[in-house]
């Protein structure tokens, strides 16, 4: 048969397939989300996220050692305070749980890059991501508190802050506050296209951040909307975002690609708690191969255009990358 174009020629062996692979990944692009809690001696498994834990500061060394051994060099801290109030004061407390975790990591693991999630939902008594006016989040009042949180986190040793609240104008406000306090070199990774997603369910158990009433659809994005996501990304870049993020990752590859094509800054994708939990539970039931599906999900995000991949599978993916199973 006279077939001049045979794409299968380039699939004939593993070495050739790797040579011509279009999507290449590197362990340095991985970020591991890490939950920290008050107290001493605690390592609490998260029921909805098998294999994930909440650590108190005096046990952080366990997970940080594991990450370093795997080759993962970046973490993103989420705090779970003992005390919550209407204004989320624990988020900007100089001795808050994330601030202590940042200082500990900076002192004992200086080679770990420290990203601080910047939001209020874990710290407010009502579970919303800002200051309430009645039952609505007051956008502009919230900005004042986000500024305080960003400065507090930078003072405690955050290498980067990552606002996840989805308030209008927050990147500009945070950038100005950081600059005014001498943190001109602290980058902002904005949760730019963060959707009101059902994939976040397990995280709300992990962080104790479920809203006490209503939902977050008045500030997180409607998952039907594409053009609005691009508008949010562009606005964050104009306000000074150094990195933009699409969250979740798995069901939003189309937007990761559109954002990647549109912007000239790095793009992050957050593979969220629901994605992790589905794989873990399906694998435990024997329905899927955890390693293979984990690698395929990651490759899809990188193929779509992600430069940074935030994932609870960071340790496992790093080992797969080293073993040549992905990338």
Kindly list the characteristics that best describe this protein:
two-stranded antiparallel sheet; globular; ten-stranded mixed β-sheet; alpha/beta
Describe the structure.
The protein has 327 residues and is an alpha/beta fold. Helices cover 38% and strands 17% of the residues. It has helices at 14-19, 60-70, 97-108, 139-156, 170-180, 201-207, 227-239, 253-262, 273-284, 290-304, 314-322; strands at 30-37, 43-45, 53-56, 74-80, 113-118, 132-133, 136-137, 160-163, 189-194, 243-247, 267-271, 308-311. The strands form two sheets. Strands 1, 2, 3, 4, 5, 8, 9, 10, 11 and 12 form a ten-stranded mixed beta sheet that branches. Strands 6-7 form a two-stranded antiparallel sheet. Helix 4 packs across helix 5 (170-180) and helix 8 packs parallel to helix 10. It is globular, with a radius of gyration of 20 Å.
């Amino acid at each position: 048969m006279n077939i001049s174009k045979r794409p299968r020629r380039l699939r004939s062996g593993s070495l050739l397939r790797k040579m011509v692979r279009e999507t290449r990944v590197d362990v340095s692009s991985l970020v591991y989300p890490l939950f920290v809690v008050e107290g001493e001696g605690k390592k609490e498994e998260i029921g909805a996220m098998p294999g994930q834990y909440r650590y108190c500061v005096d046990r952080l060394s366990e997970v940080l050692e594991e990450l370093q051994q795997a080759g993962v060099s970046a973490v993103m801290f989420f705090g779970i305070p003992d005390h919550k109030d209407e204004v989320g004061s624990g988020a900007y407390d100089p001795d808050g749980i994330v601030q202590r975790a940042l200082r500990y990591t900076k002192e004992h693991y200086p080679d770990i890059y420290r990203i601080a999630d910047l939001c209020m939902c874990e710290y407010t008594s009502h579970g919303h991501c800002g200051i309430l006016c009645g039952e609505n989040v007051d956008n502009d009042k919230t900005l004042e508190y986000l500024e305080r949180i960003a400065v507090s986190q930078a003072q405690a040793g955050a290498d980067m802050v990552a606002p996840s609240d989805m308030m209008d104008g927050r990147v500009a406000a945070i950038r100005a506050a950081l600059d005014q306090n001498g943190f001109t070199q602290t980058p902002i990774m904005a949760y730019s296209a963060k959707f009101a997603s059902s994939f976040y369910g397990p995280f709300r158990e992990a962080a104790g951040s479920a809203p006490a009433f209503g939902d977050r659809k008045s500030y997180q994005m409607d998952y039907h909307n594409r053009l609005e996501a691009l508008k949010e990304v562009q606005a964050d870049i104009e306000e000074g975002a150094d990195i933009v993020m699409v969250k979740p990752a798995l069901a939003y590859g189309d937007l990761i690609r559109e954002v990647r094509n549109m912007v000239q800054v790095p793009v992050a994708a957050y593979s969220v708690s629901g994605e992790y939990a589905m794989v873990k539970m399906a694998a435990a039931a024997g329905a899927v191969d955890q390693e293979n599906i984990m690698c395929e999900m990651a490759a899809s995000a990188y193929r779509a255009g992600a430069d940074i991949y935030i994932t609870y599978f960071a340790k496992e993916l790093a080992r797969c990358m080293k073993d040549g199973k992905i990338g």
